[in-house]
Amino acid sequence: MVSNQKKTIAIIAGEASGDILGAGLIRALRKRYPQARFVGIGGDEMIAEGFHSLVPMERLSVMGLVEVLGRIRELFRIRARLLDYFFTTPPDVVIGIDSPDFTLGIERRCREFGIPSVHYVSPSVWAWRQKRIFKIAKSVDLMLTLFPFEARFYEEHNVPVAFVGHPLADRIDLEPGTASARASLGLEPEKPVLAILPGSRSGEVERLGALFLEAARWLQARRSDVQLVIPCVNREREKQVSELVASLEVSLPLTLVRGRSREVMAASDVVLLASGTATLEAMLLKKPMVVGYRLSNFSYKVLSRLVSVPWVALPNLLAQKALVPELLQDEATPEKLGEAVLERLENDQERSRLQAAFLELHQTLRQGADERAASAISALMESRN
After folding, report:
1. 321: domain range?
2. Alpha helix positions (H), 320-385
3. How far apart are CA 301 and CA 297, in angstroms?
4. Does residue 157 sit in the same domain as residue 246?
5. pLDDT tens, 34-56?
């Protein structure tokens, strides 16, 4: 239903992934409210859709405790400026996209002022620090979740929620183009491919890069026909991986690719990767995977006491069972990682079983997230009228 009302819709996105979500949401909301005005904080993707950003989004894109402490006064000033703007010219709704440490506080203040508030992308409250749910309940009129198990958690705690699906599931085809990806990357079409993704940040590559390379060397000694490919998010990570490869005592035939991680995974038979969003992408591409991760012993002990779910990989969380192997901390050895990869390279029956399970999960998440999110937000605004 199209409305001629001149709605003002406030959106706050703090990083690149939120900017992409926000742009899709603006497109879907504009279909319902062609005369709507969109304002808040967003990046280039949202601005290209006609969004007015009061502050450059990169001022919110802060990673790490030290960096946050160094910018805390600026972040407080930005928060105060936004609230002053929203209280002076109240929007019809305020939508915080991810970045919960920044956005939830603003959402709470707006809600107390009488402005409906929405949070898009649930924090991992279902996994650890579950008491945060009480703060969230006071902050939002509606939570939009990407995964169904998140929505169930909010329903159990009587927080209004809508499962909208995952935008990646909408964008990635149900059938992966393995042959075309191999051709594009210049890989031999008939030989098996292992994609290796030790992470996108320097610290992750430092912790996992050598481990994954040793696992690849273990595999290469047993299957010399396997093509090894590592996508590197930028020039710095490419240099870091190159230095790790050079430090190995035995040369390892590797193809390094800058960017194009989705294409590299699409070209693969198996993916060896760190836990994180990449596991979701590998699942949507229907790729058997082996998940490995290491932290400092102290961090692992602390987190293992806080985390209340039995898995870390998203395919396992979505299926609520161990679809893919998770080799964490002391279990993450070159031999065990290599053995798990080899098993998935050579067991055709297991590969077929996994691909069928991944297809089912893909269809569960393929809900038209932009439209569903816009529909839920529209219903909230109309109910407040």
Report:
1. 178-365
2. 334-346, 348-365, 369-384
3. 6
4. no
5. 999 999 999 999 999 999 999 99
